[in-house]
Amino acid sequence: MQVEGIPYPANLKAAEVVSVTLDRTTGVRTVYVNPAIQPAASPAPPPAASPAASPAAGTVTITAATPPTGSTAAITGKVTGLRGSPIDYIIVLYVQAPEQVWYGPKPGIGATTTLANDWSFTINGWASGDPHDANVPSIGMYVVAAGSQVRHA
Asked: Which of 5, 31, 69, 153 is most buried by a 10 A CB count?
């Protein structure tokens, strides 16, 4: 059963390494990088398909493409500039309803997404059966250390 309308886990903001919130109605993309995070000396190369969106060397960021409002197609993206290995991190996804309440994690309790060897990710099935999920105005993805306990119990 999905827990809906509850606050983020208390330690999500403290645990996040980098996050992105995508507003599907305005197209605004907000990236947050925890100031305590030190970027890798040589960040992973940018995606070949979007050189204009490449992060500057020595920065940590997350890029993501969400489906248009009304669609539940996969969410894809890439994390760049983190130290360590992709297996050191996971992504936790939340959606924001029109009444400004965040729901998640998606698609259900304990749901996380792993990063591929090239730091890319694909989140299939993120809409957890609720017909409203396809129309949420905002989607937030939070990269946390793989051992973080930020999921709802």
From this structure: 31
